[in-house]
Each structure stands twice: as structure tokens, then as C-alpha cells.
């Protein structure tokens, strides 16, 4: 929840130095109390336009995730909302107000620095803008503009700031309404869902919310693990290393322990870094189809083990398959080839006819079209096609890695993979790995020096390109952590 | 199409013959029948897969579940499956052989 605390260098006392009697009251009076949300915004903007004799009045709200100000309401010339205009913080007039966190007055606009097209189109001449801060952060900018040159006074600034506060409250209350409604829906959905039945557990729950507030941050939830977690568990176990059979054995233990009712079929394949070979371990899953250039496709002849989640199975097996450049593997779930009333062998044979060592997208499209056509699938179907590219098809390697010590290993790994894929001679690879590694280490070190006591940040781009018979490698440190301000350590791109 | 389970007890060994379509719809019936057959505490169990015309993942699950429970009791499930059995390929691709001994007859 937002909490509006203060605005910079400005008092909020009503009725002081008031040269326009009733001006403050006009934007704070009780007559506005019955208005809510958008109506209140519009009414406030109209009143401030009247008071300040301005031609336009615009409210922009900050979207913190994108650091952009979105036009939320505008009066006078009101097309900004419809066009969904957004101004980055620091850019344009509203962006400057938000970035400087203080009122900004411009008597004569220099159109080179205006992003809001409406200001430009309508020849707006003078502008006054104020920010609204909440706990030190900008949440909103409000500005008024005139078509004739105008010198805004301190009193104008004060008045506009009061309106900005009112707008802030209006927006807050609108947000609170939305949040209250959302919280109510959430609570209803949670309570309606009830408690799961878990043999061996007795469950009871109560929920009471404070009546007048309607919203509470408290909640409870009890749930059985959904089967979707299998996927993330598999990824986690794969990170620990080992061949696919070992990874599946770990997953198997996990499932048997945490979700004994589950039985799942999986086909796990892991490529060697060279991409020349991969190891496959199917757990009660049909094996992938392998298609080599100019050869008919065939099912991989690999042993198939028991499903994941079945206790008492023997040790799983992983089989190494060679997949030369141009070769293609097609993984699929049984829903693709299994049809009631037709033989599985027939489906598999048809799949082998359709799978060729061609572009992966066309293989997918062809197989899906032939097997599913226009009929709705009667079972889930998942299919994955992977093709080992020929060295000639491989484009440059472009990496952008964080300037952190452990990035060096990732860079070396990616380079080895790429060099091997383009068919570079192993002996020259070693030199290139060292040269690029050193350049990246410099960038990492420079970053560590610059940010010894500050926040970490920055990236280093690495680019490898084949220029036969050479490989051109470029390492740059153009990250934001090192602004181009000259000096010996910045911009040290290295060409190897 | 409904599933059918026939169990024949000979001394301490039982033979479970499945037929029809073993799918999600018939799975509960098949499981109940297998459970009651197993309550006789046999020392040898075989499952005859000559006749089933269709089997989906629910059917496969029943087979693995049976084999797994027998394994805990140190009994190797024997599975009878002639080469022309309609579900032979499916059973092969399920990796059932890792838990059961497949026999042609």
C-alpha cells in the first residue's frame, strides 16, 4: 500500500498568503468528497485549470516497473489518455519533474526537449509541473500549460502542489478500492476451495477479518502438490550433474517420497558439449525418432525403463547416441501416435515417414498436420524437435554476461561449444580461449574495482565471428557501470 | 467395451487374464479384481496380456503398480504376451520388461 507522506519544500497549510480568495477551498472543499476515482480527477483538473487560467492540465502516474509516467487524466486538450502516452522518467517535461523531484517552471518551451506530442501540436508555450512524492519516491507528476507566455508564481506552484496532493489521495483511494475488491475475491476463492483431504492428517481452519477494514493480509492455505512441480524438480536434479539415468533416479526417489500416488513417464536426453553425442534415458516413454540426412527416420533403439514414481525398479540405463551435423531428433508424447482403433506400430511407422532431417519448424508443422489435422486431440500431445546444425549454418556467437567472476566459466563453456560447432582446430581454440578469458577477466576486475563498495552491476558483451580462416573475437565493457568518460580503464575492447 | 479380469488359482500361483479395453473408464474395476486376487497371498503371479484390445496410461499404471507391489514381496511378475497381441508394442515401449518377465505364451 502507498503512503503519501510529504512533498518537498512546501507547506500544506490552507488559507495562507491567499491572493485568490477561496482558491484552496476550491480544490479541497467538501463538495469534492462525494466524487470518486476518475470523476474526482477530472473535476480537480478542471478546477485547477480555472484557478490558474491554464489551457491544459495533465496527471501522469509513475509505473515503477518500467520507470515510465503514464498519462492518466488530462483536461483542456485531452487525447493523451486515449493514445496511451508514456513518458520515461528523465525525458521530456513530466519526466524532468519526476527525475528532479521538485516543481519545474518553463516560461518558453524549447521544443527539442518535449516528448508529449500534444504539447508540441498545440503550441503550448509555458508549463508548470509539480511532482508528488510518497516516502521519498515520485508517484505522480501534475502539470499545467498555457498557449500564451505566462510567468508562473510561487503561489501558483503552491496551489498546484495542493491539487497534486488531492490527486494523490484520489488515486490512492481508487487503488485501495480495486485492491479491496481483489482481496475479497481472493479470500472468497481460497475459502471456497476448502481443505484437502489428506489421509493421516486432520485439518481445521477459521478465518475472521476485521469488519470495518474488509481487507486483511492474513490467510491460510493447505494444498496437495500439483503434478506440475515434476518439471521444476527435474530441472533442479539435472543441475546436480550426472547422466540422464542418474537424474531420473533422483527424480524417482523424490516422487516416491513426496508424491507416492504419482507415476510419470519421462524421456530425458542430455547433449554433450560438442553436440555430437547425446545420452538418452526413457522412463516408460516412447523413444525419440532419429532422422539423418538422406536416410529414413527410425525409432532410437534404446532400452526403456520403468516410469518415475514406481518403487522397486532396477537401476536405470542411459544410452549414448551419435547425432552428426544435419541429424534431427523428434521427441513426442504417446498422445501423438496412439489412437483407439489403430495400431501403435502403424502410428510409429507413420511418424518415421514424416520425420526428415529438415528445418525443425516444418517437421513439427507436417507431423502435427498429418496426425491431428483439424480434429480436436483426444489426448494431450507434446512434441519437441531438435536438429544438430551444420557448421556452415552457425552464425556468430553473441554473449552478454554479468561482470561477475563466475561468468568466466560460462563464457569458456559457450566458446568451446561454439568453436567445436563451427569446426575450429582444437589447438588454436586454446589460444583464443585464453585471450578472450583474459579480456573478460579484465572487465570483471574493473567492475569489481569500480563497485567495491557500491551495488554490483554491468555486463560484458562477447562476440565471436567466423572470418575464414580466422575467428574474430570482440570483448567490450560498454555496460552502464562504466560510463564513457575517458580514462585508461574504460572502453578497453580487446581484439584477438 | 469393458475390461474383464479372470483369475485362476492353481496351488499357490495365480494367473490374471485381462481382456477388453483397459482404460481410465475400466481401471477401477480391473484394479479391484486384481486386488481381490492378490488377497489370496499367492507365491507366483502371472498376468495374461494376450487379449486386451486397447490400453491407455491408466492400464499401464495398473501393470506397473502390480509389478512394483509384487517386487516388494520378492515375487517377479510373469507376463504372457504373444507376438500378435494388440497391446504388445505399447507394453514394450512402456519399459514394463524392467519389472516383469515377458513370455510369449
Core attributes:
heterodimer, A: 496 residues, alpha+beta, four-stranded antiparallel beta sheet, 11 helices, 33% helix, disordered N terminus, disordered C terminus, B: 105 residues, alpha/beta, five-stranded mixed beta sheet, two-stranded parallel ribbon, 3 helices, 7 strands, 32% helix
The biggest chain-chain interface is: A-B, 26 and 23 residues
Give me the number of helical elements of chain B.
3
- Alpha carbon gyration radius of chain A: 32 Å
**How many helical elements of chain A?**
11
Write up this protein.
The complex is a heterodimer of chains A (496) and B (105). Chain A is of the alpha+beta class and 496 residues long. Chain A has eleven helices and 17 strands. Chain A has helices at residues 23-28, 37-51, 92-100, 117-121, 154-193, 229-239, 244-258, 344-354, 360-372, 407-422, 426-450, and strands spanning 56-63, 68-75, 86-88, 104-106, 126-134, 137-146, 266-271, 277-283, 289-291, 298-299, 319-322, 328-332, 383-387, 397-402, 459-467, 470-475, 494-495. In chain A, strands 3-2-1-6-5-4 form a six-stranded antiparallel beta sheet, with helices on both faces. In chain B, helix 1 (27-38) runs parallel beside helix 2. Chain B has 105 residues and is an alpha/beta fold. In chain B, the strands form two sheets. A five-stranded mixed beta sheet of chain B has the order 1-2-4-6-7. In chain B, a hairpin with a 2-residue loop joins strand 1 (4-10) and strand 2. Chain B starts with a strand and ends with a strand. Chains A and B meet through helix 8 of A and helix 2 and helix 3 of B.
How would you sum up this structure in a few lines?
The complex is a heterodimer of chains A (496) and B (105). Chain A is α+β, with helices and mostly antiparallel strands and 496 residues long. Helix content of chain A is 33%, strand content 19%.
Amino acid at each position: 500500500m502507498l503512503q503519501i507522506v510529504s512533498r518537498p519544500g512546501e507547506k500544506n497549510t490552507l488559507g495562507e498568503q491567499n491572493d485568490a480568495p477561496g482558491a484552496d477551498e476550491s480544490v479541497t472543499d467538501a463538495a469534492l468528497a462525494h466524487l470518486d476515482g476518475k470523476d474526482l480527477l477530472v473535476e480537480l483538473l478542471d478546477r485547477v485549470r480555472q484557478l490558474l487560467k491554464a489551457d491544459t492540465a495533465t496527471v501522469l502516474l509513475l509505473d515503477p516497473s518500467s520507470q515510465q509516467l503514464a498519462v492518466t487524466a488530462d483536461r483542456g486538450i485531452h487525447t493523451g489518455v486515449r493514445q496511451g502516452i508514456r513518458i520515461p522518467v528523465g525525458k521530456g517535461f513530466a519526466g524532468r519533474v519526476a527525475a528532479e523531484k521538485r516543481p519545474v517552471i518553463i516560461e518558453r518551451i524549447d521544443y527539442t526537449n518535449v516528448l508529449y506530442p500534444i504539447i508540441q501540436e498545440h503550441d503550448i508555450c509555458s508549463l508548470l509541473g509539480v511532482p508528488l512524492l510518497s516516502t521519498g519516491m515520485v508517484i505522480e507528476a501534475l502539470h499545467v500549460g498555457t498557449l500564451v507566455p505566462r510567468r508562473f508564481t510561487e503561489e501558483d506552484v503552491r496551489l498546484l502542489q495542493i491539487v497534486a496532493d488531492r490527486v494523490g489521495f484520489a488515486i490512492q483511494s481508487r487503488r485501495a478500492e480495486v485492491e479491496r475488491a481483489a482481496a475479497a475475491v481472493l479470500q472468497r476463492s481460497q475459502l471456497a476451495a476448502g481443505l484437502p483431504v489428506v489421509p493421516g492428517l486432520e485439518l481445521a481452519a477459521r478465518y475472521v477479518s476485521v469488519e470495518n477494514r474488509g481487507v486483511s493480509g492474513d490467510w491460510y492455505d493447505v494444498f496437495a502438490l500439483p503434478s506440475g512441480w515434476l518439471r521444476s524438480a527435474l530441472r533442479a536434479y539435472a543441475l546436480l550433474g550426472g547422466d540422464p539415468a542418474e537424474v531420473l533416479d533422483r527424480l524417482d526417489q523424490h516422487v516416491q517420497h513426496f508424491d507416492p500416488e504419482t507415476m510419470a513417464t519421462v524421456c530425458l536426453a542430455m547433449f554433450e558439449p560438442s553436440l555430437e553425442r547425446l545420452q538418452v534415458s526413457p522412463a516408460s516413454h516412447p523413444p525419440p525418432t532419429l532422422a539423418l540426412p538422406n536416410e529414413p527416420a527410425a525409432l532410437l533403439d534404446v532400452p526403456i525403463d520403468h516410469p518415475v514414481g514406481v518403487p522397486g525398479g532396477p537401476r536405470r540405463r542411459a544410452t549414448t547416441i551419435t547425432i552428426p551435423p544435419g541429424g534431427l531428433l523428434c521427441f513426442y508424447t504417446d498422445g501423438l501416435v496412439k489412437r483407439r482403433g489403430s495400431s501403435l506400430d502403424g502410428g510409429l511407422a507413420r511418424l518415421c515417414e514424416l520425420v526428415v532431417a529438415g528445418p525443425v519448424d516444418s517437421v513439427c508443422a507436417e507431423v502435427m498436420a498429418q496426425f491431428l489435422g483439424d480434429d480436436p486431440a483426444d489426448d494431450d500431445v507434446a512434441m519437441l524437435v531438435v536438429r544438430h546444425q551444420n557448421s556452415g549454418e552457425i552464425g556468430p556467437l553473441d554473449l552478454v554476461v554479468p561482470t561477475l567472476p563466475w561468468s568466466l566459466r560460462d563464457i569458456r563453456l559457450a566458446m568451446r561449444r561454439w568453436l567445436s560447432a563451427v569446426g575450429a582446430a582444437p589447438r588454436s581454440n586454446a589460444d583464443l580461449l585464453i585471450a578472450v578469458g583474459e579480456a573478460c577477466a579484465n572487465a570483471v576486475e574493473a567492475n569489481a574495482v569500480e563497485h567495491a563498495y557500491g551495488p554490483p552491476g554491468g555486463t560484458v558483451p562477447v562476440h565471436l565471428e567466423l572470418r575464414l580462416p580466422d575467428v574474430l573475437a570482440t570483448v567490450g565493457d560498454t555496460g552502464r557501470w562504466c560510463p564513457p568518460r575517458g580514462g585508461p580503464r574504460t572502453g578497453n575492447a580487446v581484439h584477438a | 467395451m469393458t475390461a474383464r479380469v479372470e483369475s485362476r488359482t492353481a496351488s499357490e500361483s495365480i494367473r490374471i487374464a485381462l481382456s477388453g479395453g483397459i482404460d481410465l473408464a475400466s481401471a477401477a474395476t480391473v484394479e479391484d479384481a486384481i486386488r481381490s486376487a492378490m488377497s489370496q497371498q499367492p507365491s507366483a503371479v502371472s498376468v495374461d496380456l494376450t487379449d486386451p484390445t486397447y490400453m491407455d496410461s491408466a492400464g499401464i499404471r495398473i501393470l506397473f503398480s502390480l509389478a512394483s507391489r509384487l517386487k516388494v514381496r520378492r515375487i517377479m511378475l510373469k507376463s504372457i504376451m504373444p507376438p500378435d497381441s494388440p497391446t504388445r508394442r505399447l507394453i514394450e515401449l512402456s519399459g514394463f520388461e524392467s519389472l516383469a518377465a515377458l513370455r510369449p505364451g
